[in-house]
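User: My collaborator and I are trying to settle a disagreement about how two of our proteins should look. Neither of us wants to argue from intuition anymore, so we agreed to look at predicted structures for both before our next call. Could you fold the first one, then the second, and keep them clearly separated?

Assistant: That sounds like a sensible way to settle it. I'll keep them separate. The first protein:
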Amino acid sequence: MSAPLHEPHPAGPRRALPDTQQGMRRRNLARVMHTVSAEGPLSRAAVASRIGLTRAAVSTLVDELIRSGLLEELGPERPGRVGRPGSALAVSGRGPAGVGAEVGVDHLAACVVDLRGEVRARAVRHGTNRGRSPEPVAEELTALISQVVAEAEAQGLWPAGLAVAVPGLIARDGRTVVRAPNLDWHDTDLSALLPDEFGPAVDNEANFGALAELWLGEGTPQDFLHVSAEIGIGAAVVVDGRLLRGTRGFAGELGHVPVEPEGPACPCGGRGCLEQYAGEEAVLRAAGLTAGEGRVGLLATRAAEGDEAVRRALRDAGRALGIALTGAVNLLDPEAVVLGGALAGLAPWLLPALEAELDRRTAGPACPVSVSRFGPEGPLLGAAHSVIRTVLDDPAAVAGRA
């Protein structure tokens, strides 16, 4: 699915291309890239038909993109047809690539995605980051980033940028982690701790998960609420194909919506927050299990085996999610709710209670709930693909480096 051109970058506003002849050329290059990326392989004639330019104009643009290494010719589009077949165009499997990284409470990850959307390198480090200062975490993350970039460069790719997903409130500057309760980070300029050459941009992990769903999901609507979970619970609101960020960029903190006003204390400073009932650690406590690696797999296995304590804990978590989501659904009227992150792996036992609460409490018609196919990989993929979108939106900006 192709998003509107010049959609604001996940880490901040993108400068609009000037309304000049040069700006028009750059916009048309972007239109060609988006069209071939979304529908390719295509001939020049097919691209011209889709974007409403002459074949001669499109050929000039295509030749520039081929010289820059952003498009490549695959040979005749349909061999054997009457007349001269057009040469099929596709986005290049070499050249600029998006680097995505993720800081989780109990893991770090990095990956490289090429212009075709294929993951070409990936690395993960498991281990808690809770309570660690940002500097050593950033140092370890930099090592993972360097590892995947080296693997990608050996395949003919180079990094067009870096985007980092973090479970916390991110300032609109796309650099500062204002508050990440489950990491115990406050007012941290994470971008300054990462390699300058990549131009790192930082955003909330739920936002990147929602963008992965929007850009890569099949049949994803343009208006939906994306909910994801690890230790904490985050959400992102997509309206008309764009993230709804709020005045300070903090929209979507579903995990800190109270579901029991006098409930247990939360690291955010509140009481009875959704995370205290539906976060991974909360569910493990309720089920009488010990936290550790493979938490979701453990819960899913026990639930599938009929462990009643686990099933009861998941039903209660689903009920809490349904209560919190009801307010968001009534307020925003989304077309759908999408469960991502760890929640995706527990959906069979969460959904019945969640949907029952939504059906009982929602003022309008029932809001359908679906499960993301990306699961916990969503934020990392969304981060990498956000860089790819900047290349598609303004290929002229990277053409000189190809």
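The second protein, kept apart from the first:
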Amino acid sequence: MSFLVTNPYLSLLQTWRKRKIFVSYHHQNDQWYYNEFSRIFSDSYNVIQDNSLDRIIDSDDSEYVMRRIREEYLT
């Protein structure tokens, strides 16, 4: 007779999935912190994907800018 030993955390671990997150930062003041964050997680875990805007969205309408970012850069 064999007994199956189950770990209560195993089912939790099996349900974890890699999630995508959005990191926003102020380039002028926080670039160094982003670079370090990116270096550590990209080198160690290969999980960083930089989707920085290629160009500035030329508009003063914040709703328009956010909509363009959602449509073109966030998936």
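Some points you might bring to the call about the second protein. The chain has one domain: 21-73. The helical segments are 10-15, 27-45, 62-73.
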